[in-house]
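Quick illustration, no need to memorize.
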Amino acid sequence: MKIDPDCSADLSVQIASAIRDAIISGDLPVDERLPSEAELCDQFDVSRSTVREALKRLGAQSLIRTQRGATGGAFVNRLKFEDAYTQQITTSTLLLSMNEVSFATACEARYALERACASLSAERRTPDHLATMRAETFRQAQPGLTDEAFCASDVAFHRALVDGAANPVLSYQLAGAVEAMQPLMNMITFSARSRETIVSLHSQIADAIEAQDASRADELLCDLSEYTLALAQSVFEARSKG
């Protein structure tokens, strides 16, 4: 592991990157203990505060964990897909908001990704996934449900559909699509949408998944995508006239 002292990048960033690269390459395997802070200081010829900052960066990325005691220290973490969901969601949200991605583009990507896993979900979903989809659909039909709660239930419904594919890579990739894009789209369309229409579509999607009818689930997701786009267009037109 090496750094370039002439590089303009912060030394702690360079050290964190060097250790991260060693983890990714397998030179530092899972559960391996990292060199001590003193050893890292000598290796990189930097101060202890710089090393500690680098370790904080790695910890924030869940790449390492620290243990106290005589056998303690910093160890390479076994990163799980679930642990990375939050970072994926945050990154997706920032990319959408900072790069001014159009609603149509976000909607197209979000439903294209979900449709890609619908056939797997129809084949592999468990009773728990179906129960979640049914429970959220029932919740969405309650007249006293707030807009915020409806949006949260909307996300939970689609999360269950995605997780029903039983593919952790897909679940991780779609975490940003469902839990970042969906709330952003809900913020735009909530004032114009018909809850009855969405509940009906969700109920039919759950029926199709339960019946293992992948083509029907895909068709209904297309209908939901088209409905969402139409809602957004009506909202944007109303704003332009206002």
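The chain has two domains: 11-76, 81-241.
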